[in-house]
Amino acid sequence: MPEVALESNIHRVVEEIAGHGNSDTAAIREPLDMQSEASGKAEAKSSPEEEVELKELKDLEKSVEKIANQLGELNKELTGIQQGFLAKDLQAEALCKRDRRVKATIEQFMKILEETDTPILPENFKDSRLKRKGLVKRVQAFLAECDTVGQTICQDTERLQSTNLALAK
């Protein structure tokens, strides 16, 4: 908005100096008009086909968020188990269940990766390509987190088993 005020002030000053509205003052307005026109083109709608792709990607993003929330909950539960909020005799079973849930989560993320990779997007679908690239990176980051959680579960299970073996002897 300051540009509009500045432009109108300049226009008024030129009129006062010249004594009348000059057609040359249109040159002052021209850069602003060109800016507006350029931003209008940037905000132009994508093609209907690309809109469909963008909607599908948005739906996949929502799915990723839901799965990521499940992963966050799983991580909290694992932290609780590690901090001893569960009786020792129940920990092995709980870790086993968490391990299955991590594997199911990995499977869900892999399906989403497969769905994002399936459509072949034309070169001119730049928004869709960018959105898909960002989605793939997020899913890969969540998969890395799943791997970390899975490794932690395995380590805790091994630690628990070795403790149980030591107690049995």
TrEMBL record:
Keywords: Chaperone. PROSITE patterns: BAG. Pfam families: BAG. GO terms for cellular component: cytosol; membrane; nucleus. Residues 17-55 are annotated as: Disordered. One of its GO terms (molecular function) is adenyl-nucleotide exchange factor activity. SMART domains: BAG (SM00264). This is BAG family molecular chaperone regulator 1-like. The gene is LOC109388513.
